[in-house]
Amino acid sequence: MTTKEVLIAARKLIEDPKHWTQGWFARNAAGEKVPVISPDACKFCAIGALDRVERNTPVAFSAHRALCSALESPCDPVSQLNDCEGHVAVLALYDKAIASCVD
Length: 103
Hints:
Layout: H1 3-14, E1 26-27, E2 43-44, H2 46-53, H3 58-69, H4 78-85, H5 87-100
Antiparallel strand pairs: 1-2
Helix pairs in contact: 1-2, 1-3, 1-5, 3-5, 4-5
């Protein structure tokens, strides 16, 4: 997968607000915290969605850097935007990161 493909797939995971979460990387249907790789995980934060799609590879790191680069303020982490700004802001961040990808 390319960086852009990872970002698109991760965005698709959380496109529906029912599959997005705050305060933890992944949750099950009951809202309990679970590992991102758990088969029960069905809700993801902005970072958890990336990790669900691609983990610990150069492309995964590139996708994370693309999200960070798309932030308005580089001092604010993606997790802060996810937890403080909400779902619409997360999708907008993904859209900006996807648009900036050249691959």
